[in-house]
Design brief:
By secondary structure, this protein is of the alpha+beta class. It folds into three domains: 1-72 and 268-467, f41 fragment of flagellin, N-terminal domain (Up-down Bundle), CATH 1.20.1330; 73-102 and 228-267, no CATH class; 105-223, Immunoglobulin-like, CATH 2.60.40. The chain is 44% helix and 22% strand. The chain is built from eleven helices and 19 strands. The chain has helices at residues 15-27, 31-64, 67-71, 153-162, 216-219, 269-294, 310-324, 355-364, 366-374, 382-394, 399-466, and strands at 73-78, 82-86, 93-101, 105-109, 126-132, 142-147, 168-174, 179-188, 194-199, 221-223, 228-232, 235-239, 243-248, 251-255, 259-267, 296-297, 302-303, 343-345, 351-353. It has a five-stranded antiparallel sheet, with no helix packed on it. A four-stranded antiparallel sheet has the order 7-8-4-10. Helix 1 packs antiparallel against helix 11, helix 2 packs antiparallel against helix 6 and helix 2 (31-64) packs antiparallel against helix 11. The chain is flat. 25% of the residues are buried.
Length: 467
């Protein structure tokens, strides 16, 4: 394009402007291709939205097709003494729980040590021994912590906290008259309780006064660790922690405070209601997406990107067939149609849910509800059938993915055509540049000849005038 700037110098014509107009006219031929590519890209985006909505519906159907959903249990507690959670191993029932006291961690503090935290506590170093109530099998009942020579009270604290097997947290406490080395067990219960803190002979530097903390009644401040004590239906139970598993099969108890509580373990009907509601919402969202993509506005004449698309019609038809088909046998006391569980298929293709009718079906026969949605044995239920259909519609080599592939192929073909046409335009413009350059040179020569002849005629006229 650099040569364009020189066009017109010889002729005085606006050849650059003319070349720009020709360029614009030629590139206008690319606009229909650009619009077609953009249309296919928008179409692919619309297919992607449809796939996303269909995938969400598949997930909702799969959740409702899972038999474990209908077998899940919930634990409700009356009272503030505890909280509880039930898993699949629990059995429905009611339990009276009495919490006598909670589990607590043991704590122990040395007598006052007459040095500031930053002053030297020991000259030659030594061993600090910590004893515990009753360690689990295979673990020691006491541990020894080495303290370096010249350590301060703060460094003794840090040595305890840095020891991997210490099982306590150490801190310094000022009771208003002096400092104490305080220990708190990491775990609750009697077995984990710290019960002794013994300093090796010669541990303290000269001048440091402290009584032997091994004699707890005379020298140390102690809070013994203890196990939680509670009863379930009159059976006494102890636990080293306040979170108890196994006291009631499949139930985890979280003891909160002393007192009474009633624990009810029952079928989790709320989870089933939420799954059915989610199923209806996901289907309606899918229908809404399809409606937006296939809509037609008669006033404006504007149509959705997938209006009249055969792949969309295939998705709608297959799901509608599954929704309207029978599942069980009403004569055998089974639910056969969605309407029997309070789910209606509206005229616009969406679903509506009657919560009261669904609650009644769940309360009367949860097993029948399970068989309707989840099926039995090798026979899928309504939700299982819809999940399978949705998975097939989302799979490879089906109408929806083929439609996306077709749009992508058209984009590739159009892009190749665009490149070829663009190359042709560049060749045409280059030919124009050459021709304009030749025209510019020719007119420049003609102008020079004209100027020369004019000068000659003028000279001749002047000569004749003198004669």
């Amino acid at each position: 394009m650099a040569s364009i700037s020189a066009l017109g110098i010889g002729s005085g014509l606006d050849l650059n402007g003319l070349l720009d107009q020709l360029n614009e006219a030629e590139r206008g031929k690319l606009e229909p291709i650009e619009r077609q590519i953009e249309s296919q890209q928008v179409r692919i985006s619309a297919y992607g939205e449809l796939q996303g909505a269909l995938s969400a519906f598949e997930g909702a159907a799969n959740r409702l097709a899972n038999p474990e959903l209908f077998q899940s249990l919930s634990a409700s507690v009356g009272g503030e003494a505890l909280q509880a959670a039930a898993d699949a191993d629990a059995a429905p029932g009611q339990y009276q729980v009495e919490v006598a006291h909670l589990a607590g961690a043991g704590s122990l503090a040395s007598q006052r040590i007459d040095v500031d935290p930053g002053e030297t506590l020991t000259d030659g170093g030594g061993i600090l021994t910590l004893a515990f109530g009753k360690a689990p099998e295979g673990e020691p009942d006491a541990i020894e912590i080495s303290v370096a020579a010249g350590s301060t009270l703060e460094e003794v604290r840090d040595a305890i906290n840095a020891h991997e097997g210490a099982k306590v947290s150490a801190s310094l406490v000022n009771d208003g008259e002096g400092y104490r080395l305080a220990l708190m067990s990491h775990q609750t219960g009697e077995a984990a309780s710290v019960t002794g803190m013994t300093f090796e002979d010669g541990f303290f530097a000269d001048g440091v006064a402290v009584s032997d903390a091994e004699d707890l009644e005379e020298g140390a401040v102690v809070q013994q660790g203890r196990d939680a004590a509670f009863s379930v239906n009159g059976i006494n139970i102890v636990s080293p922690t306040n979170q108890v598993e196994g006291a009631i099969q499949g139930v985890t108890l979280d003891l909160q405070q002393p007192g009474s509580a009633t624990l009810q373990v029952e079928q989790d009907t709320r989870a089933v209601r939420e799954a059915v509601g989610g199923f209806v919402e996901a289907y309606n969202a899918l229908k809404g997406t399809i409606g937006e993509q296939t809509a037609f506005d008669a006033d404006s004449g504007r149509a959705g990107e997938l209006n009249g698309d055969s792949a969309v019609r295939t998705v709608e038809a297959r799901l509608r067939n599954d929704l309207s088909a029978m599942v069980g046998d009403s004569a055998q006391g089974e639910f056969a149609l969605l309407g029997e569980l309070g789910i209606s298929l509206n005229l616009d293709g969406t679903l509506s849910l009657d919560d009261a009718e669904l609650d009644m079906a769940i309360a009367n026969d949860m097993g029948a509800v399970e068989r309707f949605f989840a099926g039995s044995g090798e026979t899928p239920g309504m939700a299982g059938r819809l999940a399978e259909t949705s998975g097939q519609l989302l799979g490879s080599n089906v109408a929806l993915t083929n439609a996306i592939g077709g749009a992508e192929n058209r984009i590739e073909s159009l892009s190749q055509r665009y490149v070829r046409m663009e190359q042709g335009i560049e060749q045409t413009l280059e030919r124009y540049r050459t021709q304009f350059g030749q025209l510019d040179g020719m007119i420049a020569q003609m102008n020079q000849t004209s100027d020369y002849l004019a000068q000659q005629f003028a000279a001749m006229d002047a000569q004749l005038g003198r004669d």
